[in-house]
Write a structure and sequence with these properties.
alpha+beta, 5 helices, 9-stranded antiparallel β-sheet, globular, 2 domains
Length: 247
Amino acid sequence: MGHKYVNPPVVEAVCEFRFAPSTPWDTSIAARLYERMKHVFPREERRDIHELEVVQTEVGIEPKVRQTERFMFLSADGNEFIQVGPQLLATNRLKPYVSWEAYQPTIALAFEALMSVVPVDSIERIGLRYINRIEIASANVTLDDYFEFRPYTGERLPKAMAAFRLAGLFAFDDRRAGCKIELANAIAETPEATAFLLDIDYFTTEAESVGIHQALEWVWNAHQRVEDVFEGCITDRLREMFGEAQP
């Protein structure tokens, strides 16, 4: 991201739209959407999703588990898929992530297909998330060499941390958008290596702040922000490891 890399660290990219509660939903909508997208996503699956939500009751705030149905339209290799459900549309791209130019047509296809079959009044939330897995071929890694976004331990604390998780929420566009950055250690896939997850989630913070006709433009701009954030999180040493692609 940002620069074009030969070996990008992206393991999953997700673009998610959440719509107003008044947005209609039934299984016939999923069937109509599938007809419009099956030429690209020939496989169809249905899953029951359990979501945790917090509700206000007479005795206070209580957690509640809500079960919803979700339909998935998958590419032939399963590396790219669309998720649709009540007031939800999401597009997921798994590794290998080729480029934004290859991914963005999927977002446009799914969004425009939904708009053609569902009367949507407003958008509650839009999010663009990139999960990066970075594995370094060394058992002893100094974070300062690879990350600009990293935990600071001070001079009196040991540098060898067995595990950590660092998160920060940054405001954009006069707080109408936010970006959550999270860096954590991960289990390495190869011996004598060290792995990390760098999770960047850019999203709207106010319901109905983006109109239906501006939604895709917002996503394109959000991607530029995510690229800038990613580049701000890493050092040149990681850029060299990813390998910058030739134009």
